[in-house]
């Protein structure tokens, strides 16, 4: 059963049970009140009779006429002597005669059932001075009261039925209104499931209730999925473009060799060089992609204590044979012990130094300092710089400022993305600033206190 139907049925049952119990209570209280009033009226009649008619007249035989004056509708009045013998009797219905006459010493009034019909009985003692000499009995069939109670039952029944119908339709309408956004959400989700296309829910509700928040959260989720899908598509297209370019070059040169290579040694060598370069490039990109994937999905850092100055010296040493340009290391202290993942930090510094080496003119300065709460690595080169409008994108994967030049320099645009990821895993920061034609500055900060390796 749908939750909508369940909710409406539940609220209907709840409302109906309240309504029916209320109806019964109202009916019972009203009937009791009316019966009491009827008995009081009879009692009043009995008192009137005892005041206006003398006791002797009441108990004088064949004096029925005197009782008839006070006789209500569907009633019987009797005067009895001390032995409960009927002396006088006046009645406009014969059914009540079956009720046995009864002498009493104190006044009584009650109702009882007679052939499934309620009858009301009032008995009052007849006093002669202080002495009781007989009983006055008034018995009625409260037909008007019964009729009015029947009418009340009819009215209450119709009203209850109407209220039940109204509550049923109202609870169905209410739950439909309440669950409409949910039904829409389910429909949208089903559409997404079948078409695999991102869809959003309409947010035109005025009240910012839980369902609105649910729809809003759902839309945010959809936006994020859409963004991540876009990024993924972009990444796949960029990665395949990188490989496609290299593969096209390799294919071009190999087909050239197949046609002319064995006759022309120079062409043969050129093709071999090109194929070698492109294979190296593809290997480099593949390694970088694997590294990124690993950093993205299984970010495990192995923390150890090491000297940052020594690490930078090692890195510079590694690059020196590859370039005739100058790297100047300027640490604020001769030794700076840091607690981090040594290999990963080495990788970050290498990525930045590699960039500096590719683009610098004469020299690159590497400043190391320790300002609580961070270690700061500042790498400043005097290269051609990066245009200001390109700066926000350099950390994106496959982003290269000058695509044609980058092919010559061998860049794939993944270095800074990897560096940023590693720094973030260390809960540090990486910033790049540049003045075109003057140089570029990259600042990396790593917290002094060891941080957890998850982000
Ligand atoms: N010091 C720098 N001077 C000038 N441009 C820079 C510098 N550092 C980075 N860039 C620009 O930012 C781009 C992105 O750098 P990144 O290191 O991510 O990629 P890459 O160097 O091209 O390739 P690789 O993945 O091999 O590092 C570079 O292509 C380059 O255009
Ligand atoms: Mg690089």
From TrEMBL:
The keyword Membrane applies. The chain crosses the membrane at residues 12-30, 152-180. GO terms for molecular function: kinase activity. Residues 176-230 form the HAMP domain. Keywords: ATP-binding, Cell membrane, Kinase, Membrane, Nucleotide-binding, Phosphoprotein, Transferase, Transmembrane, Transmembrane helix, Two-component regulatory system. It is found in: Cell membrane. InterPro entries: ArlS_N, HAMP_dom, HATPase_C_sf, HATPase_dom, His_kinase_dom, HisK_dim/P_dom, HisK_dim/P_sf, HssS/ArlS-like. It is a multi-pass membrane protein. Residues 238-450 form the Histidine kinase domain. Signal peptide: none annotated. Its EC number is 2.7.13.3. It catalyses: ATP + protein L-histidine = ADP + protein N-phospho-L-histidine. This is Signal transduction histidine-protein kinase ArlS. SMART domains: HATPase_c, HisKA. Its main location: membrane.
């Amino acid at each position: 059963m749908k939750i909508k139907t369940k909710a409406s049925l539940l609220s209907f049952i709840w409302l109906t049970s309240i309504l029916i119990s209320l109806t019964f209570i109202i009916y019972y209280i009203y009937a009791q009140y009316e019966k009491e009033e009827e008995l009081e009226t009879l009692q009043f009649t009995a008192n009137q009779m005892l005041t206006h008619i003398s006791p002797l007249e009441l108990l004088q035989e064949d004096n029925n006429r005197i009782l008839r004056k006070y006789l209500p509708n569907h009633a019987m009045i009797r005067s009895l002597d001390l032995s409960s013998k009927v002396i006088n009797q006046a009645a406009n219905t014969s059914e009540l005669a079956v009720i046995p006459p009864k002498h009493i010493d104190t006044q009584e009034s009650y109702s009882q059932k007679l052939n499934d019909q309620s009858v009301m009985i009032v008995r009052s003692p007849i006093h002669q001075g202080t002495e009781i000499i007989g009983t006055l009995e008034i018995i009625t069939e409260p037909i008007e009261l019964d009729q009015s109670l029947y009418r009340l039952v009819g009215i209450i029944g119709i009203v209850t039925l109407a209220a039940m119908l109204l509550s049923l339709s109202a609870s169905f309408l209410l739950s439909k209104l309440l669950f409409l956004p949910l039904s829409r959400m389910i429909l949208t989700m089903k559409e997404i499931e079948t078409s695999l296309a991102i869809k959003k829910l309409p947010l035109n509700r005025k009240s910012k209730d839980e369902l609105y928040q649910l729809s809003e959260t759902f839309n945010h989720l959809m936006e994020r999925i859409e963004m991540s899908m876009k990024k993924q598509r972009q990444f796949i297209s960029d990665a395949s473009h990188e490989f496609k370019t290299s593969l096209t070059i390799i294919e071009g040169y190999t087909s050239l060799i197949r046609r002319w290579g064995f006759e022309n040694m120079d062409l043969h060598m050129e093709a071999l060089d090109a194929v070698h370069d492109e294979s190296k490039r593809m290997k480099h990109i593949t390694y970088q992609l694997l590294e990124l994937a690993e950093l993205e999905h299984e970010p495990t850092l192995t923390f150890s204590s090491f000297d940052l100055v020594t690490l930078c010296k090692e890195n510079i040493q590694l690059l020196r044979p590859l370039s005739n340009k100058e790297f100047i290391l300027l640490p604020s202290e001769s030794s700076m012990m840091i607690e981090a993942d040594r290999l990963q930090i080495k990788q970050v510094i290498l990525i930045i130094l590699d960039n500096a080496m590719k683009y610098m003119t004469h020299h690159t300065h590497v400043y190391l300092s320790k300002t609580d709460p961070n270690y700061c690595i500042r790498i400043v080169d005097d290269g051609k710089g990066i245009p200001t409008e390109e700066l926000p994108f350099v950390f994106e994967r496959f982003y290269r400022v000058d695509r044609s030049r980058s092919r010559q320099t061998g860049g794939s645009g993944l270095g800074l993305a990897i560096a940023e990821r590693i720094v973030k895993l260390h809960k540090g920061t990486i910033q790049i600033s540049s003045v075109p034609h003057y140089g570029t500055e990259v600042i990396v900060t790593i917290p002094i206190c060891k941080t957890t390796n998850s982000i």
